Amino acid sequence: MLYHHNYVAEERYDDVDVLVTRKGAIRAGSGELGIIPGSMATGTYIVKGLGNAEAFNSASHGAGRRMSRTKAKKTFTLADFKAQTDGVECRKDSGVIDEIPGAYKDIQSVMAAQTDLVEVVARLRQLICIKG
């Protein structure tokens, strides 16, 4: 079963019933499959949870932003966007420039930081990305 992100779930840890809020996180219980995306052009990982109770059986939902949407719009040009999404079929207009790959953290670094939370099953490469 694949789990989504940004939700609240009733779970039990150390014999205590708790509400776990996963904002920007996925459930990564032992053996559970999940999806951890990078940016529009940097790959997506299919993972299997390791059931780390200290992390409330959670892992990151994805690369996460390294700059705000506003800063990305001010920092990058449409030419930058087209270069960073070269080889990916996607919208390439000013309406999505805030989604430029350079506005996101490096997905490989994010994955390296959570080897105690998930096992990588597969890495997917974007061919098409549908935004907005």
What is the end-to-end distance?
Answer: 27 Å
The chain-level mean pLDDT equals: 93
- Rg over CA atoms, rounded to whole Å, is 16 Å
Oligomer: single chain
Structural class: alpha+beta
Helix content: 10-25%
Number of domains: 1
Report the count of strand segments.
8
The side-by-side strand order for the widest beta sheet comes to: 1-2-5
How many helices? 3
Overall, the morphology is: elongated
Give the topology string: H per helix, E per strand. EEEEEHHEHEE
Q: Which blocks of ≥5 consecutive residues have pLDDT under 50?
A: none
> What summary fits the major beta sheet?
3 strands, antiparallel
List keywords for this structure.
132 residues; three-stranded antiparallel sheet; 8 strands; 15% helix; alpha+beta
Structure description:
The protein is of the alpha+beta class and 132 residues long. It has one domain (5-129). It has three helices and eight strands. It has helices spanning 69-75, 78-84, 107-112; strands spanning 5-13, 16-27, 33-37, 44-49, 58-60, 89-90, 118-124, 128-129. The strands form three sheets. The chain has a three-stranded antiparallel beta sheet, with no helix packed on it. Strands 3-4-7 form a three-stranded antiparallel beta sheet, with no helix packed on it. Strands 6-8 form a two-stranded parallel ribbon. A hairpin with a 6-residue loop joins strand 3 and strand 4. It is elongated and about 55 Å long. 28% of the residues are buried.
